[in-house]
Write a structure and sequence with these properties.
heterotrimer, A alpha+beta (756), B alpha+beta (152), C alpha+beta (283), B: 152 residues, alpha+beta, Ubiquitin-like (UB roll), 2 domains, 5 helices, C: 283 residues, Uridine Diphospho-n-acetylenolpyruvylglucosamine Reductase, domain 3, Enolase-like, domain 1, 32% helix
């Protein structure tokens, strides 16, 4: 069923429930990790390396200082493996001797008085022999004499379709570009933190701000050597994450746990100060793309050739997965018989980079979309027209050699975006504006893109996600899964999905607290998978529950909530179990070859076209977004307000990525602008209303045809904005953020620029 | 130092070092956890409270200046107030960490501009950072609270 | 434990100040700079805090026939909304309105902004352009100091050890005055200036320039004037002012640097452009 919705806020709000976590957050009652009341708590602090890699020759605790009231932990205290459990066990929990980046954890201290901790830190002496030539740049690392790991390459992927070399002969128009994207800080407003307590029953309980409790559980198991039944991980209300709390919480949890194991039963609280969080936790991978595009005179793409490299920092962590997604998204939603994307994740002496909404796709999509605009310019073709010529249709072959099915709306969503934004009229209006002696220049730019939801290829299969539904005698139903509410609305949408499938009112269904003692592993809360994959499992589990109640509890075919409750009571009275499970089954046609990057990479793609209008001040080269239209086909909006909120939030993060946010590095390769005064995200004064258009075609792999939407909005704003700036200023912009300083430089250097 | 304040309408006496941040006094001495620490430098507004009717960053206020002050925290905003209802109606809280501060800033804004224009809303809330919402639902909630327009 | 002194009168404050141990005390008014320093830098061992926020004399705003006298403790929030300030000294209402954002403006004081002496101080350029005078109180009485003589070096002011800034005086502007204020920040609000410019230009009836003052922030170690630019303009006619000369004078009057927010090159270029714009667009 096709539905086109314009701007969800115009819809009747009464049709959609209020967020289940809304009031507790709005009234300030929700407890985040730093709010949790504790008796006898020990505050903790981390001692870190100063140099950008090297050897710790000495770590001494001043013998004249009284260390007895402190808990002190070093690498020697690690009972299990001194490695953070990840794809590879290369990152230590605590440095023993050799380290690879500045800010690496060396030792931990805890004390009941935070002031004493500060004093104690001054009595710890670290002597390091630094690396002679640390490496901080992608191409420097690739050319390196200074080797961190073999070739300084963590992973090398190739997506190769057709014959790019041959295809160049048919390309009358070729562009070649080098495009850069910076690191970006997730800037969740709640800094990271964990609480650990070794309970009297011998269970080590960790509670804190996180996205993936089972990742934390696995990491604790590996580092403490304790069995899983002696470990319990509980997620507290999490104040934003965006990927930044995907892997690093494992590090903090291990640290807190080690201290708790030594503290004789006192709870340990390890909460990062903002500047520490900024310096040491993982950020978005910087990227460098070399893009060559070729088209015939009609504008049909003949080849896409990209050398895509991301900076993984000092340890492997998630870089191979980020790279994989970046490579798959690099050729965009376009029809092209000859595609070659070579992707490499590179080792440098920066702290490791990690997950941030989009996860490699914003980087490669930026490169492709800006290069496409250059191609359009060279062809003397409107950028929208070039997209139209090349966007995929049902029946085309995808960049990964897959047959594009019915669930492809790239063209339609572009048409919608052009219509709703009045793209051509605005373009004309801006031409007129720019010809007149105004103080500013205006431009309109676009990006068309798609984002695959769920884990790539066989990833979901390996996750083997499971969910439980637990009904109770009074008819209340709990959803038990490891997916976390972190602001994106999972607690509400999963409840909606379950309640809908069970034909019960929302009040009768709850999402249980994410506590590994109770919930099964339904996979991490990442990759825009929660609604689509886990929601689908919940819907299936709901069917199973109804079937069980019919088979064993006397539930009738059609029933009322009272009937449902009665059936549950009957089950309990006859001592029948009210728990059902659903486990992930991959779709029949998900065939993906991860070696050659061919086949069907994702269960669903969401399709989008974003259009940005910018205004650039001629004197200062400051850019502001005048209007922004975000149009996307998202299958089915379980909760339109929540979807709208996700898109608005992602777009504003994308605007930040394009215009304001820059991670600057000091000489040790650590974030130099480690204060909110100096890392600039948009305020309300910078952001006006955004126009969000939702299209629902109902063909996604999730419940009622839903698809993942959380990351999609991150991919479009930066290229759309840069393309708009290029239109306004008539210059080539090859990197973000497009700060005034950069634009001033470029506008003075490039001939034909509209403002010398 | 012993300081007497009125917090959410109640007389309170606190004994703590005078340079203690009001944020810590609220959270630790008084157990009022609604004000949050997002940055410790007065940039993010997550710690915002009302002091004598004005929105301020409690992380920048020393206890020594609070003798006789009238303070309102999120705990003192009635649950049935128009702003709280509007934030709930409009799904304006996602992760919620900025929300208490945002509500107090909006309270001060509406006290000065009962029918604010969009520009006044944007400038009035510019000291409160939100990373989740992109501000759209927040603008809508403040507008709804100001016009008294409710949905369902 | 630190001592907290909270005088109710200026003479009480001055007396206390005279007796404080050097290096071990901290003056605080609005606290929006001082509390950040305490939190983020290595906290100093402060033995005594001298809190000026309870002194009513510092919070008065008086308008006389000469101009306005603003108590050093007046908050930016009050300043930006003050009808007389808006009417007669609109650049000051403008700079107060772009300092930080509402929660900062409700605490931050004009005096504090000057005494904190950041080169990026938002209100400094305006006071330089308006030729403000500072009323400084000390053990031996008060003195008036032209504001342009207040900043001696990076974060160093002309306040002697036992002195306090008491008020800021700004004269009425003569007929024919035009003003121009602009802040180029890292974003629209809650931003530190990359360049801040306030210009006051006094034109005669025929577009001749009688006087010109430019106050700048973030382009030198202190907020500063552009004396060579002013000298070039004064006595000149608007139509004879040349852009290349302006650029030359600007580059000899300022010393911008690269820092975490911007570059010397950007600051220099933008300052030149905005000075040119100010001359032509001041109103």
């Amino acid at each position: 069923m096709t539905k086109l919705l314009e701007v969800a806020s115009e819809m009747e709000k009464r049709n959609f429930p209020k967020r289940v976590d809304g009031l507790s957050k709005i009234t300030g009652k929700a407890l985040y990790v730093d709010d949790i009341p504790l008796n006898g708590v020990l505050h903790a602090s981390t001692i870190r390396s100063s140099c950008a890699g090297g050897v710790v020759e000495e770590l001494t605790f001043d013998p004249t200082f009284d260390w007895t009231p402190f808990v002190v932990v070093t690498a020697k205290d690690i009972p299990g493996l001194n490695a953070i459990k990840m794809l590879e066990n290369d990152q230590p929990v605590l440095v023993d001797r050799v380290f690879r980046h500045a800010g690496e954890p060396l030792a931990l201290l805890a004390h009941s008085d935070p002031c004493m901790l500060e004093t104690a830190l001054r009595h710890v002496h670290v002597r390091e022999t630094p690396l002679a030539h640390p490496v901080f740049d992608i191409d420097e690392a690739l050319g390196a004499e200074r080797i961190i790991i073999p070739d300084n390459v963590y992973t090398d992927y190739l997506l190769n379709k057709g014959d790019v070399e041959q295809a160049q002969k048919n390309a009358q128009c070729i562009v070649e570009e080098r495009l850069l994207t910076p690191s970006q800080e997730q800037l969740y407003i709640e800094p990271q933190g964990m609480i650990a307590v070794l309970q009297e029953d011998g269970v080590l309980r960790i509670e804190g701000s996180m996205q993936c409790p089972y990742y934390v559980l696995d990491a604790l198991e590996q580092c403490t050597g304790l069995d899983k039944d002696k470990l319990r991980v509980v997620q507290s209300t999490t104040g934003g994450a965006f990927g930044g709390k995907e892997d690093y919480p494992s590090m903090i949890a291990c640290h807190a746990a080690l201290l708790a194991l030594k503290s004789g039963g006192l709870p340990v609280k390890l909460i990062y100060e903002r500047s520490e969080d900024l310096r040491v936790t993982p950020k978005r991978h910087p990227s460098r793309s070399l893009v060559r595009l070729g088209a015939n005179r009609e504008g049909e793409l003949q080849f896409i050739d990209m050398d895509f490299a991301i900076d993984g920092g000092a340890y492997r962590t998630l870089s191979p997965v980020v790279l994989s997604r970046g490579v798959i998204h690099a050729p965009g939603p376009y029809r092209c018989a000859n595609i070659r994307v070579r992707g490499r994740a590179v080792a440098t002496n920066h702290p490791p980079f990690g997950a941030f909404r989009g996860f490699g796709a914003p980087q490669s999509i930026f490169a492709l979309e800006v290069a496409l605009d250059r191609l359009a310019a060279k062809l003397n073709m409107d950028p929208a027209e070039l997209r139209r010529k090349n966007l995929l249709h049902h029946g085309d072959v995808s960049p990964t050699g897959d047959l594009v099915g019915e669930d492809c709306f790239a063209q339609e969503i572009l048409d919608e975006a052009l219509r709703v934004s009045h793209y051509y009229e605005r373009q004309d209006a801006f031409r007129v504006w720019n010809a007149a002696p105004h103080d500013t220049l205006r431009g309109i730019g676009l990006a068309t893109f798609a984002h695959g939801a769920g884990f790539t290829g066989n990833g979901e299969l390996y996750l083997a996600s499971r969910v439980f539904l637990q009904a109770h005698a009074d008819g209340q139903v709990e959803i038990l899964c490891s997916n976390t509410e972190m602001g994106q609305g999972a607690a509400t949408t999963l409840v909606q999905i379950a309640a809908d499938a069970l034909q019960l009112p929302l009040e009768q269904v709850q999402l249980a607290q994410t506590d590994t003692a109770r919930v099964p592993n339904s996979g991490p809360t990442v990759a825009s998978r929660t609604c689509m994959v886990v929601g689908d499992l919940i819907a299936k589990a709901a069917q199973r529950l109804l079937q069980k109640l019919r088979d064993e509890g006397g539930l009738t075919k059609t029933f009322t909530p009272a009937g449902f409750n009665a059936a549950c009571l009957r089950m309990q009275e006859s001592e029948k179990d009210l728990l059902v499970t659903a486990s992930y089954q991959p779709p029949m046609d998900m065939l993906w070859d991860e070696k050659s990057f061919t086949g069907r990479a994702y269960a669903s793609y969401a399709w989008a076209a974003y259009i940005a209008e910018v205004e650039v001040d001629k004197l200062t080269l400051e850019t502001r977004v005048l209007n922004f239209t975000a149009a996307q086909e998202i299958g089915h909006a379980v909760h339109p307000q929540i979807v709208q909120g996700q898109i608005e939030g992602g777009v504003v993060q994308g605007i930040g990525y394009a215009l304001y946010e820059n991670v600057l590095w000091n000489q040790f390769g650590v974030m130099a602008n480690d204060r909110l005064t100096n890392y600039i995200i948009p305020t309300t004064a910078d952001i006006g209303p955004l126009q969000i258009v939702l299209m629902e075609k109902g063909l996604g792999a999730g419940p009622k045809g839903a698809k993942g939407v959380g990351e999609l909005p991150m991919d479009g704003p930066a290229p759309a904005i840069v393309n708009a700036i290029q239109q306004a200023l008539k210059i080539d912009v090859a990197q973000i953020p497009a700060m005034p300083e950069l634009l001033l430089d470029l506008s003075r250097a490039q001939r034909g620029s509209q403002c010398q | 130092m012993s300081v007497k304040m009125q917090i959410n309408g109640q007389e309170v006496q606190v004994q703590a070092p005078p340079a203690s941040r009001l944020l810590d006094v609220l959270r630790v001495e008084l157990g009022l956890k609604g004000a949050k620490e997002g940055c410790g430098e007065g940039e993010c507004g997550a710690c915002a409270v009302l002091v004598n009717g004005q929105v301020v960053n409690s992380c920048l206020i020393p206890l020594g200046q609070m003798d006789g002050a009238e303070i309102v925290t999120i705990e003192g905003v009635p649950g049935d107030s128009a702003l709280i209802q509007a934030f709930h109606d409009c799904a304006a809280a996602q992760c919620g960490i900025c929300t208490p501060g945002m509500i107090l800033a909006a309270t001060a804004l509406l006290a000065e501009h009962p029918q604010p224009t969009m520009d006044e809303i944007r400038w009035g809330l510019s000291g409160n950072l939100c990373r989740c919402t992109g501000y759209g639902r927040i603008y809508e909630a403040v507008t709804q609270a100001s016009t008294g327009d409710t949905h369902g | 434990m630190a001592e907290w002194l909270r005088p109710r009168h200026m003479n009480e404050a001055l007396q206390l100040l005279a007796e404080l141990p050097a290096e071990q005390y901290q003056i605080i008014s609005g606290g929006t700079d001082v509390m950040v320093a305490q939190q983020l830098s290595a906290p100093r061992d402060i033995a005594v805090w001298l809190d000026l926020s309870a002194i009513p004399e510092l919070k008065t705003v008086e308008v006389t026939t000469e101009g306005i006298r603003i108590g050093a403790g007046v908050t930016l929030s009050v300043l930006r909304r003050h009808p007389e300030v808006q009417k007669h000294w609109p650049m000051l209402a403008a700079s107060a309105a772009v300092t930080g954002a509402a929660p900062i403006q409700n605490r931050a004081t004009l005096g504090g902004n000057l005494c904190n002496a950041s080169p990026a101080a938002d209100n400094a350029p305006v006071l330089l352009a308006y030729a403000a005078h500072l009323e400084i109180a000390g053990p031996n009485g008060t003195r008036l100091l032209p504001y342009e003589q207040f900043h001696l070096g990076y974060r160093q002011t002309a306040l002697a050890a036992h002195e306090l800034l008491q008020a800021i005086h700004i004269p009425y502007l003569p007929a024919g005055s035009r003003a121009y204020y602009r802040k180029v920040g890292t974003r629209a609000a809650q931003a530190i200036a990359k360049v801040g410019i306030a210009a006051w230009i006094h034109f005669d009836a025929g577009q001749g320039i009688i006087a010109a003052r430019f106050g700048l922030a973030s382009v030198a170690a202190t907020p500063c004037l552009l004396p060579r630019v002013s000298h070039y303009l004064e006595g000149n006619h608007l139509k004879d002012v040349r852009e290349s000369t302006i650029r030359e004078k600007v580059s000899s009057d300022i010393r911008p640097v690269d820092d975490i927010r911007s570059t010397a090159e950007y600051r220099l270029e933008v300052t030149s452009r905005l000075v040119w714009e100010a001359i032509h667009d001041a109103h």
